[in-house]
């Protein structure tokens, strides 16, 4: 080994990170709150990225291993979750209620993000005076990645479930699982004993998969430290960022912040009738993980766990709407970023754009959002599709590549929050939201749910959504009759996410 070429600073960075892993392990053993642990890891990662700027190559694999593990469990999780949810539904009408509402709210949050981005982009005139040029800029790589909408539409439907599973095509797998689940419901309606073993197999697979998720989620703080350290280090060493790109980046994060906490606050208050601050407090670990991993699909196990165990969304809704939200909607990647990049290019190149052109841009962004993949870098392909469909030079995309990776952190957090918001609203509208869980009132004395004035409309009849399922410890959830009189016990296993997450 040539000691002269050995990167001693990178080695020191790795040793430091491993020592900090030990600190995080001790904090978890001392039962420190999972959210606080993730925030501590986030602060550690920023510090490491600053101190060892440009020398974090040895740390990068630690974060990538976590993302790889999450990716490995995502498809099995989606398959067993959808099958379990659909086979647990009592009627096809119940499925229609959840499915159509989920699709509407996921697209509605994206539509709101498009309107927000158009308003901010045109108000601040982002890109104006930048004097951009696309001469000599090659965009062939991105042009080949653009998929016609007709082909995108066809790809929504399953062709070969095995290849779809291997290629992580989430929408075809969801549709295939729904097909099998609906078929089960129809057969079970006529001859339940004949398909009882199939239902038992699904529930066994669900219990095993969720236990595997528990192990992976426990690694979240360590992954956050490694991923944030790498992102911070790369951001500090990135050079050549012109002022117009910096302005675009700042405006992007402003739009993402308004969407994540502003628009979703309004939606939760107006349509879910809950306290948004309580929701944001519970969903914070998923937001931080999404910010770090830059993967909506990778964050999915944590998101569904928080929805069911911390917010009170029924498994039927959480396990259907949240996975669907990793490919449909995603306002950060398919609304805010593509629209702002388009406006940046339009103003920077001095293009003439009329009202009909702006409407077309918004319309295209909304439709492209129905085929977005919840993985790192997907915004690049989505933006290329939007620019091409709107008649804009794809070369614009190449110009913003230097800041795209940084923006992807906020985009992913925005996507995950929107999907969780949609799931919560759907749960409320279908009577499958338990606000006692959201407000930490499980086990509280009778009448405690009336303490807050705005909860008067939040107390809904509880409906059993996981009948016949078991907790990972093998405990049978309590059952109850809706007309039993007294308030029913809650069949939930609200626990510390990341410690022994039961979703």
Structure commentary:
By secondary structure, the chain is mainly alpha-helical. It has one domain: Orthogonal Bundle (Proton glutamate symport protein), CATH 1.10.3860. The protein has helices at residues 8-29, 34-51, 60-88, 92-124, 140-143, 149-155, 161-166, 170-191, 196-217, 220-237, 243-272, 276-293, 296-311, 315-324, 331-349, 355-368, 378-389, 395-399, 401-429, 435-438. It is globular. The model is unreliable at 141-146 and 444-503 (pLDDT under 50).
List the helices and strands and how they pair.
Layout: H1 8-29, H2 34-51, H3 60-88, H4 92-124, H5 140-143, H6 149-155, H7 161-166, H8 170-191, H9 196-217, H10 220-237, H11 243-272, H12 276-293, H13 296-311, H14 315-324, H15 331-349, H16 355-368, H17 378-389, H18 395-399, H19 401-429, H20 435-438
Q: What general form does the structure show?
A: globular
> What is the subunit organization of this protein?
single chain
Rg, Cα atoms, Å? 23 Å
Note the main sheet.
none
Low-confidence stretches: 141-146, 444-503
In total, how many beta strands?
0
* CATH C-level: Mainly Alpha
User: Alpha-carbon distance between the termini?
Assistant: 49 Å
In CATH, the topology is named Proton glutamate symport protein
Q: Give the mean pLDDT.
A: 77
Instruction: State the share of residues found in helices, binned by percent.
Output: 55-70%
CATH architecture: Orthogonal Bundle
> What fraction strand?
under 5%
What is the structural class?
mainly alpha
Helix and strand sequence: HHHHHHHHHHHHHHHHHHHH
List the total number of helices.
Answer: 20
Tally of separate domains? 1
Q: What's the CATH H-level superfamily name?
A: Sodium:dicarboxylate symporter
């Amino acid at each position: 080994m040539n000691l002269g070429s050995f990167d001693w600073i990178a080695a020191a960075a790795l040793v430091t990170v491993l020592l900090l892993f030990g600190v995080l392990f001790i904090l978890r053993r001392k039962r420190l709150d999972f959210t606080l642990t993730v925030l501590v890891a986030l602060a550690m990662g920023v510090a490491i990225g600053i101190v060892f700027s440009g020398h974090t190559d040895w740390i990068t694999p630690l974060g990538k291993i976590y993302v790889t593990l999450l990716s490995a469990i995502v498809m099995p999780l989606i398959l067993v979750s959808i099958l379990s949810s659909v086979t647990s539904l009592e009627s096809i009408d119940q499925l229609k209620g959840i499915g159509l509402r989920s699709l509407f709210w996921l697209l509605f949050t994206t539509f709101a993000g498009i309107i927000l981005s158009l308003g901010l982009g045109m108000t601040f005139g982002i890109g104006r005076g930048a004097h951009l040029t696309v001469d000599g800029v090659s965009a062939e790589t991105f042009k080949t990645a653009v998929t016609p909408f007709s082909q995108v539409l066809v790809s929504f439907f399953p062709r070969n479930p095995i290849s779809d599973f291997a290629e992580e095509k989430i929408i075809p797998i969801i549709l295939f699982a729904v097909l099998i689940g609906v078929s089960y419901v129809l057969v079970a309606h006529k001859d339940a004993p004949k398909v009882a073993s199939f239902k038992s197999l699904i529930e066994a697979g669900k219990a095993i998969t969720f236990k595997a998720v528990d192990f992976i989620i426990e690694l979240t703080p360590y992954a956050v430290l490694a991923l944030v350290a790498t992102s911070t280090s790369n951001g500090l060493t990135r050079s050549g960022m012109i002022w117009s790109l910096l302005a675009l980046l700042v405006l992007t994060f402003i739009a993402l912040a308004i969407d994540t906490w502003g628009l979703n606050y309004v939606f939760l208050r107006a349509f879910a009738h809950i306290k948004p601050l309580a929701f944001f407090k519970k969903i914070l670990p998923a937001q931080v993980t999404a910010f770090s991993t830059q993967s909506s699909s990778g964050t999915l196990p944590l998101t569904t766990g928080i929805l069911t165990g911390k917010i009170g969304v029924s498994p039927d809704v959480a396990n259907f709407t949240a996975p669907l939200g990793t490919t449909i909607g995603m306002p950060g990647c398919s609304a805010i970023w593509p629209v702002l990049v388009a406006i940046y290019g339009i103003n920077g190149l001095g293009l003439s754009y009329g009202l009909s052109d702006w409407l077309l841009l918004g319309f295209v962004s909304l439709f492209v959002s129905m085929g977005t993949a919840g993985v790192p870098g997907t915004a690049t392909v989505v933006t290329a599709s939007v620019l091409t469909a709107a008649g804009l030079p794809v070369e614009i995309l190449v110009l913003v590549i230097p800041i795209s990776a940084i923006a992807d952190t906020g985009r992913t957090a925005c996507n995950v929050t929107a999907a969780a918001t949609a799931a919560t609203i759907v749960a409320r509208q279908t009577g499958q939201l338990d606000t006692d869980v959201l407000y930490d009132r499980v086990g509280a004395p009778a009448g405690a749910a009336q303490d807050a004035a705005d909860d008067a409309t939040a107390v809904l009849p509880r409906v059993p959504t996981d009948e016949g399922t078991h907790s990972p410890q093998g405990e049978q959830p309590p059952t109850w009759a809706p007309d039993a009189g007294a308030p029913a016990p809650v069949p939930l296993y609200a626990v510390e996410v990341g410690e022994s997450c039961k979703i």
